[in-house]
Design a protein that fits this description.
Elements (H helix, E strand, L loop, with lengths): L12 H33 L7 H18 L8 H18 L5 H8 L6
């Protein structure tokens, strides 16, 4: 088969999808690694680097939003945001000091769904 300038080679759907998905997946993987490193550094700076992963997962969003606010992405003066932050600090400190168990801290910090 001879290709002419006006004809385009037939690209199968599978290879077309692969051409689109591969760079996207690589970008997601790279961003995920960067975010993981950044969050681990944040936990270390807060003195929370040695927390069990279960507790880190539970407070991940709280810490991420604290970092975003410190970076100047937004500012929150909401009393409920401050109350949540105080709660996170209280339960993490209580766990670190041996006052409560991991299960108790996770249960206290779990965000209840509205549904």
């Amino acid at each position: 088969m001879t290709l002419h300038t006006l004809t385009t080679p037939a690209i199968s759907k599978k290879s077309e999808t692969k051409l689109f998905v591969a760079p996207l997946l690589n970008r997601i993987k790279k961003e995920s690694k960067q975010e993981f490193v950044e969050m681990q550094q944040t936990f270390d700076l807060m003195g929370w680097g040695e927390l069990p992963d279960e507790l880190k997962i539970e407070i991940y969003d709280d810490v991420r939003f604290m970092v975003q606010e410190l970076k100047g992405y937004y500012s929150s003066c909401d009393q409920f945001v401050q109350q949540r932050r105080n709660t996170v600090h209280f339960w993490v400190s209580s766990f670190q000091d041996g006052i409560c168990s991991l299960e108790a801290a996770i249960k206290a910090l779990k965000v209840k769904s509205l549904a």
